[in-house]
Amino acid sequence: MTVQTAGSTRTAPVRAVAAKESLGSRLAGAVSGGLVRVFLILVGLFWLVPTIGLLLSSLRSPQDMSSGGWWQVFTEPSQLTFDSYRKLLENGDITGSLVNTVLITVPATVLVVVVGSLAGYAFAWMEFPGRDWWFLAVVGLLVVPVQVALIPIAELFGSVGLFGTVLGVVLFHTGFGLPFAVFLLRNFFAEIPRELLEAARLDGAGELRLFARVVMPLGGPAIASLGIFQFLWVWNDMLVALVFTKSGTQPITVALQTQVRQFGNNIDVLAPGAFISMVIPLAVFFAFQRQFVSGVMAGAVK
């Protein structure tokens, strides 16, 4: 006959919980171990293979590229040369298109960030007739696909003399980027404590000063995230550029596609041009990576 005391009956569940916790902790330790880290590093390197291949291809001559794959540079490092980049700089179509890309992307990003920030603040904290209905209309524009508006807006731009110009492409990207910008920033600004804004108003701050001195610094992560999204979208766009640009105003994406169509074997220009077109938005993303992560985490917490 066994006798169980009250203390022994109470310690049994505790031991079971401790056993479960120890099992979970062991699993967590195994997941965060060195083997998993090595696996994640290998996955990251695997995703970087196309980028590395494009970089090494851009540093090889056309003869070397036609003779074998880019991985041959590891056994023949003498194949590496910057002649392709020199030819790229001598190609007026590519260099001009790169300038056009900057002239399109930077204004389209700045306009969306500035106008979207002002509109988001107005929808979040300013009272005016029909505010909620106007905001619903802006949100409804998010479902309008770009393809539906290409022909009507092209006809409109043609009638006012904007078709085929850099300004027309900037206005198109700005118009289609604003609904998402207003939606994102309005929701972010609405989470700012009302007491903070009321205290600034009591100190005599007007709406513009309140927006510039209080709202903008607090909304920095969200604004940086929006700027990165808009920059990447406009920089990598090809559909809108194909429709609204012509020779002399084409961005880098269209210029590279034109090179493929006219000069199918012009790989010594295509490879460095494609790498430059890819590495610039990557540099922008990594430059604002901290702000981007802060904005995403702030949105997730809120």
Helix content: over 70%
Distance between the termini: 60 Å
Kindly report the average pLDDT value. 80
Q: Return the structural class.
A: mainly alpha
> Strand content of the residues, in percent?
under 5%
Structural shape? globular
How many helices? The count is 15
Number of strands: 0
Low-pLDDT stretches are 16-20
Q: Largest beta sheet, briefly?
A: none
Topology pattern, helix = H, strand = E: HHHHHHHHHHHHHHH
Q: What is the quaternary state of this protein?
A: single chain
* Rg over CA atoms: 28 Å
Please explain how this structure is put together.
The chain has 302 residues and is an all-alpha fold. The protein contains 15 helices and no strands. The longest helix has 34 residues, at 92-125. Residues 16-20 have low confidence and may be disordered.
